[in-house]
Amino acid sequence: MSFDQVAALLAVNLALWALIDYLHAPPHAPLALDGLFGWACYLLLGLAACALTARVQNRATDTRALLVPALAVTPFVVVVLSLAADLPWIPRFPTIVTLLAFAYLVALTVRVLGAAYGPVHWRPALTAIVLVIAAPSVLGLLDLDTRLWVPQEQAPGDEADDADQAEALFYDQPSRIAAAVARVAPSQAGKPGVYFVGFAGDGSQEVFRRETQFAREVFGGRFGSAERSVLLINDIDDRDSYPLASVSGLEQTLKVLAARMDIEQDVLVLFLSSHGSEDGLEVENGTLPLAQLAPDDVREALDSAGIRWRVVIISACHSGVFLDALKSDTAAIVTASDAAHESFGCEDDRELTWFGEAFLKDSLSSSASLQEAFHKAAGLISQREEAEHQVHSNPQLFVGELMQRKLAELPAAKPRGTRAYTVLR
After folding, report:
1. How far apart, in Å, are the Cα atoms of 45 and each of 35, 139, 213, 338?
2. DSSP letter string over 358-415?
3. If pLDDT is split at 50, 70 and 90, which confidence band does 417 have?
């Protein structure tokens, strides 16, 4: 076992840990090398643990013989544990998961000792197992910060300036919403018209903004709502082009818009796009203090506005949690997933999420009905998840009995076939 082997494996491990740290860092977080101190401390502890185990094996045993197989297997362990931590069911069974993780690490420890020294003796094996079991407690006690990408903390004066700017921004929202709704064209008397409200909740990733803008364009082409649309957009780099996407902003927008609608016959399409959880939709725009959007918030906003006919489309993980709160005879609900699963494709380098691509781009304009578009999109998503070995997101559809007849009264579909749309930026 040479020094070159140890150095090369150590470099691979450090590069992998740096990559994982970068992938889990908040967007736009700057590189901060202070975390290297924590790395150095933990590496020294790991070296000391290997040295102690080697000494228990035999006073003349070379520690490098243990370091090489340990460092060789570490990248695999780090990747497995990192991926497992993102599984949605992990937090539900903490005790079982912890026991399984320890059992896996103990078995792997014995294998590493065998690869390093041949036949495994009980004393070094017991020493290594005790060190593995004690490691989480020791790391928790030290609690060293190993992050390399850390959001910058604001100075007190900067926080005061941000608070003043946030107050002015919130104060200005009612007038911005009123101006946006004032540009909405009325529907034709005697004919049901479609109105569109888009809500991009997460301002740190532009994929949600792009998807919401694209949804406005597609529904405009499909149902003639292009001139009867309002967008609420969170974007940390642009807080001026659109009213903010917030719970109160959605409530006010729907109330003002309802005053311009014939609520007895017109239909509202509400498109929501963001990250999601079992509590609802994430609403985030930098340092602005924004409440998250819960299913009951959406229902209360629609009910308070008096909007009877509603089509609600939620493009987010766990978006099925909205179904029970929004179901009614005069509602249609489309979700990108069921309540227990994630949807995919929200990386910021994408134009649309997987759901947005399948439903908006590949299905809606070429389908005779909303229901047909959903089933076509659900099939495309399922095929993609199978091909990429992902857990199925299980998109959901609900259409109330009265809403089925109402959808048939809406403006006729465009000619069948694929229509080219531009994804707005």
Report:
1. 16, 10, 52, 44
2. IIIITTGGG-SSHHHHHHHHHHHHHHHHHHTT------EEEE-HHHHHHHHHSPPPPP
3. very low
In the predicted structure, residue 19 carries a pLDDT above the cut 50: yes
Containing 163, the helix (H) or strand (E) segment is helix 156-182
Is 30's pLDDT higher than 90? Answer: no
What is the rounded CA–CA span in Å between residue 105 and residue 397?
A: 43
How many whole angstroms separate alpha carbon 140 and alpha carbon 157?
34
Look over the chain and give the mean of its residue pLDDT values, rounded to a whole number. Answer: 87
Share of the chain above pLDDT 90, in %: 48
Q: Residues 269, 313: contact at Cβ < 8 Å?
A: yes
CB-count exposure of residue 23 (10 Å: 0-12, 13-18, 19+)? exposed
Of 188, 295, 180, give the one whose Cα is nearest residue 243. Answer: 180
pLDDT band (50, 70, 90) for residue 425: very low
Residue 84 has pLDDT above 80, yes or no: no
What is the pTM for the complete model shown?
0.64
Taking the C-alpha atoms of residue 78 and residue 23, their distance in angstroms, rounded to an integer, is: 14
Q: Which residue has the tokens 């079991």?
A: 133
CB-neighbour burial class of residue 257 (10 A; exposed 0-12, middle 13-18, buried 19+) = buried
What distance lies between CA 60 and its chain's CA centroid?
A: 52
Which residues have CB under 8 Å from 215's CB, separation 6+?
196, 198, 271, 273, 313, 356, 360
Q: Enter the tokens of residue 261.
A: 């609608």
Q: Is domain 158-409 classified as CATH 1.10.3710.10?
A: no
Looking at residue 409, its pLDDT comes to: 86
In this structure, of 131-145, 287-301, 329-343, 350-364, the range with the lowest mean pLDDT score is: 131-145
Spatial distance between the Cα atoms of 358 and 353, rounded to a whole number of angstroms: 8
Where does CATH 3.40.50.1460 sit in the chain?
158-409
| H or E stretch at 116 | helix 94-117
Residue 411 confidence (pLDDT) above 80: no
Would you tell me how many other CB atoms lie within 10 Å of the CB of residue 273? Answer: 33
Q: Which H or E run contains 335?
A: strand 331-335
